[in-house]
Design brief:
The protein is built from three helices and ten strands; from the N terminus they run E-E-H-E-H-E-E-E-H-E-E-E-E. The chain has 179 residues and is an alpha/beta fold. The strands form two sheets. Strands 5-4-3-6-7-8 form a six-stranded mixed sheet, with helices on both faces. The two termini are 14 Å apart. The structure holds guanosine-5'-monophosphate (5GP). The site of guanosine-5'-monophosphate has 16 residues, from strand 6, helix 3 and strand 9.
Length: 179
Protein backbone atom coordinates (compact mmCIF):
# COMPACT_ATOMS: atom_id res chain seq x y z
CA UNK A 1 0.00 0.00 0.00
CA UNK A 2 1.41 3.41 -0.98
CA UNK A 3 2.12 6.00 1.68
CA UNK A 4 -0.97 8.12 2.39
CA UNK A 5 -1.47 11.61 3.76
CA UNK A 6 -4.50 13.45 5.09
CA UNK A 7 -5.18 16.90 3.62
CA UNK A 8 -8.13 18.49 5.42
CA UNK A 9 -11.01 16.00 5.05
CA UNK A 10 -9.48 13.88 2.27
CA UNK A 11 -6.96 11.05 2.03
CA UNK A 12 -4.34 10.98 -0.72
CA UNK A 13 -1.87 8.23 -1.68
CA UNK A 14 1.58 8.72 -3.23
CA UNK A 15 1.36 8.37 -6.99
CA UNK A 16 4.59 10.03 -8.20
CA UNK A 17 7.59 9.77 -5.88
CA UNK A 18 10.13 12.57 -5.54
CA UNK A 19 12.84 10.66 -7.45
CA UNK A 20 10.64 10.32 -10.56
CA UNK A 21 9.58 13.98 -10.40
CA UNK A 22 13.17 15.17 -10.16
CA UNK A 23 14.29 12.91 -13.02
CA UNK A 24 11.55 14.31 -15.28
CA UNK A 25 12.29 17.90 -14.23
CA UNK A 26 15.94 17.37 -15.15
CA UNK A 27 14.93 15.86 -18.51
CA UNK A 28 12.72 18.85 -19.38
CA UNK A 29 15.42 21.32 -18.28
CA UNK A 30 17.94 19.53 -20.54
CA UNK A 31 15.53 19.87 -23.48
CA UNK A 32 15.14 23.60 -22.79
CA UNK A 33 18.93 24.03 -22.45
CA UNK A 34 19.35 22.36 -25.83
CA UNK A 35 16.47 24.10 -27.66
CA UNK A 36 17.20 27.59 -26.31
CA UNK A 37 20.99 27.49 -26.67
CA UNK A 38 22.21 30.99 -27.57
CA UNK A 39 18.97 32.65 -26.38
CA UNK A 40 17.99 34.44 -23.18
CA UNK A 41 14.44 33.29 -22.41
CA UNK A 42 12.10 34.76 -19.81
CA UNK A 43 10.35 32.13 -17.72
CA UNK A 44 6.88 33.15 -16.61
CA UNK A 45 5.87 30.97 -13.67
CA UNK A 46 2.15 30.93 -13.02
CA UNK A 47 1.42 31.20 -9.29
CA UNK A 48 0.56 29.65 -6.95
CA UNK A 49 0.87 26.06 -8.05
CA UNK A 50 4.09 26.24 -10.06
CA UNK A 51 6.35 27.71 -7.39
CA UNK A 52 8.13 24.47 -6.48
CA UNK A 53 8.37 23.20 -10.06
CA UNK A 54 9.76 26.57 -11.20
CA UNK A 55 12.36 26.58 -8.40
CA UNK A 56 13.59 23.07 -9.26
CA UNK A 57 13.43 23.60 -13.04
CA UNK A 58 15.33 26.89 -12.98
CA UNK A 59 18.16 25.38 -10.98
CA UNK A 60 18.66 22.89 -13.80
CA UNK A 61 18.55 25.54 -16.54
CA UNK A 62 22.05 26.63 -17.46
CA UNK A 63 21.09 29.40 -19.93
CA UNK A 64 21.34 33.10 -19.12
CA UNK A 65 17.66 33.68 -18.33
CA UNK A 66 15.15 35.66 -16.28
CA UNK A 67 12.16 34.52 -14.27
CA UNK A 68 9.02 36.42 -13.41
CA UNK A 69 6.02 35.24 -11.40
CA UNK A 70 2.53 35.98 -12.62
CA UNK A 71 -1.01 35.26 -11.54
CA UNK A 72 -4.09 35.05 -13.64
CA UNK A 73 -6.99 37.29 -12.73
CA UNK A 74 -10.57 36.61 -13.76
CA UNK A 75 -13.92 38.38 -13.51
CA UNK A 76 -15.50 35.95 -11.05
CA UNK A 77 -13.24 33.52 -9.35
CA UNK A 78 -11.23 31.25 -11.55
CA UNK A 79 -11.48 27.67 -12.51
CA UNK A 80 -11.72 25.59 -15.58
CA UNK A 81 -14.58 27.68 -16.94
CA UNK A 82 -13.48 31.05 -15.50
CA UNK A 83 -12.81 33.87 -17.90
CA UNK A 84 -9.32 35.22 -17.49
CA UNK A 85 -8.86 38.94 -17.96
CA UNK A 86 -5.33 39.84 -17.20
CA UNK A 87 -1.94 38.58 -16.25
CA UNK A 88 -1.09 40.14 -12.90
CA UNK A 89 2.53 40.89 -12.10
CA UNK A 90 3.90 40.89 -15.62
CA UNK A 91 6.56 43.39 -14.65
CA UNK A 92 9.11 42.49 -17.33
CA UNK A 93 8.89 43.76 -20.88
CA UNK A 94 8.46 40.63 -22.99
CA UNK A 95 8.34 42.46 -26.32
CA UNK A 96 10.34 40.47 -28.86
CA UNK A 97 11.65 38.09 -26.17
CA UNK A 98 11.37 34.29 -26.05
CA UNK A 99 8.92 33.43 -23.25
CA UNK A 100 8.51 30.05 -21.57
CA UNK A 101 5.34 29.70 -19.50
CA UNK A 102 5.87 27.48 -16.44
CA UNK A 103 2.61 25.90 -15.26
CA UNK A 104 1.85 23.25 -12.64
CA UNK A 105 -0.87 21.34 -14.45
CA UNK A 106 -2.88 21.50 -17.67
CA UNK A 107 -6.28 19.92 -17.16
CA UNK A 108 -8.97 21.14 -19.59
CA UNK A 109 -6.37 23.53 -21.03
CA UNK A 110 -8.76 26.49 -20.84
CA UNK A 111 -6.58 28.40 -18.38
CA UNK A 112 -3.54 27.98 -20.61
CA UNK A 113 -5.50 28.93 -23.74
CA UNK A 114 -6.58 32.20 -22.09
CA UNK A 115 -3.07 32.80 -20.79
CA UNK A 116 -1.67 32.45 -24.32
CA UNK A 117 -4.29 34.79 -25.74
CA UNK A 118 -3.55 37.45 -23.12
CA UNK A 119 0.22 37.07 -23.32
CA UNK A 120 0.21 37.50 -27.10
CA UNK A 121 -1.13 41.04 -26.60
CA UNK A 122 2.26 41.85 -25.01
CA UNK A 123 4.03 40.90 -28.27
CA UNK A 124 6.62 38.38 -27.11
CA UNK A 125 9.05 37.07 -29.74
CA UNK A 126 7.93 33.49 -29.09
CA UNK A 127 5.96 31.51 -26.51
CA UNK A 128 6.50 27.93 -25.38
CA UNK A 129 4.53 26.06 -22.73
CA UNK A 130 6.32 24.06 -20.04
CA UNK A 131 4.02 22.15 -17.71
CA UNK A 132 4.84 19.80 -14.88
CA UNK A 133 1.71 17.74 -15.45
CA UNK A 134 -0.82 17.14 -18.20
CA UNK A 135 -4.10 15.24 -18.06
CA UNK A 136 -4.50 14.30 -21.74
CA UNK A 137 -7.90 12.74 -21.01
CA UNK A 138 -9.31 16.09 -19.88
CA UNK A 139 -7.91 18.40 -22.56
CA UNK A 140 -10.67 20.35 -24.32
CA UNK A 141 -8.63 22.69 -26.48
CA UNK A 142 -5.87 22.28 -29.01
CA UNK A 143 -2.65 23.28 -27.24
CA UNK A 144 0.89 22.96 -28.48
CA UNK A 145 2.67 21.87 -25.29
CA UNK A 146 6.36 21.72 -26.09
CA UNK A 147 7.58 20.67 -22.65
CA UNK A 148 5.67 18.32 -20.38
CA UNK A 149 7.33 16.56 -17.45
CA UNK A 150 4.61 13.94 -16.87
CA UNK A 151 1.23 12.85 -18.16
CA UNK A 152 -1.27 11.63 -15.56
CA UNK A 153 -4.79 10.11 -15.49
CA UNK A 154 -7.89 12.21 -14.78
CA UNK A 155 -7.59 11.97 -10.99
CA UNK A 156 -7.24 14.90 -8.57
CA UNK A 157 -3.73 15.30 -7.24
CA UNK A 158 -1.92 17.37 -4.60
CA UNK A 159 1.64 18.01 -3.52
CA UNK A 160 4.82 19.48 -4.98
CA UNK A 161 3.12 22.87 -5.17
CA UNK A 162 -0.43 21.75 -5.97
CA UNK A 163 -3.11 22.22 -3.35
CA UNK A 164 -6.41 20.99 -2.07
CA UNK A 165 -8.27 24.03 -0.73
CA UNK A 166 -4.97 25.79 -0.02
CA UNK A 167 -3.32 22.88 1.77
CA UNK A 168 -1.02 20.06 0.70
CA UNK A 169 1.42 22.08 -1.41
CA UNK A 170 4.43 21.35 0.81
CA UNK A 171 5.23 17.75 -0.06
CA UNK A 172 8.12 16.30 -2.06
CA UNK A 173 5.99 13.59 -3.67
CA UNK A 174 2.76 13.93 -5.65
CA UNK A 175 -0.35 12.32 -4.20
CA UNK A 176 -3.62 11.18 -5.78
CA UNK A 177 -7.02 11.40 -4.11
CA UNK A 178 -8.11 8.03 -2.75
CA UNK A 179 -11.57 7.07 -3.97
P1 LIG B 1 -7.53 23.93 -16.66
O1 LIG B 1 -7.94 25.30 -17.06
O2 LIG B 1 -6.42 23.36 -17.50
O3 LIG B 1 -8.71 22.98 -16.59
O4 LIG B 1 -7.08 24.02 -15.17
C1 LIG B 1 -5.83 24.30 -14.77
C2 LIG B 1 -5.81 24.62 -13.29
O5 LIG B 1 -6.73 23.79 -12.55
C3 LIG B 1 -4.44 24.32 -12.74
O6 LIG B 1 -3.58 25.41 -12.87
C4 LIG B 1 -4.76 23.95 -11.31
O7 LIG B 1 -4.80 25.13 -10.54
C5 LIG B 1 -6.15 23.34 -11.36
N1 LIG B 1 -6.12 21.87 -11.38
C6 LIG B 1 -6.46 21.05 -12.40
N2 LIG B 1 -6.33 19.76 -12.06
C7 LIG B 1 -5.87 19.75 -10.79
C8 LIG B 1 -5.51 18.68 -9.88
O8 LIG B 1 -5.59 17.47 -10.15
N3 LIG B 1 -5.06 19.08 -8.66
C9 LIG B 1 -4.95 20.38 -8.28
N4 LIG B 1 -4.51 20.64 -7.06
N5 LIG B 1 -5.27 21.40 -9.11
C10 LIG B 1 -5.72 21.08 -10.36
Amino acid sequence: MNKTIQVKDKTFAVSIPEERIMAEVRRVAAEINRDYAGQNPIFLAVLNGSFIFAADLLREVTLPCEISFVRLASYEGMGSTGEIREIMGLSVDVTGRPVIIVEDIVDTGLTMAHMLETLKRHNPGSIDICTLLLKPGKLQVNLDIRYCAMQIPNDFIVGYGLDYDGFGRNTKDIYTLCS
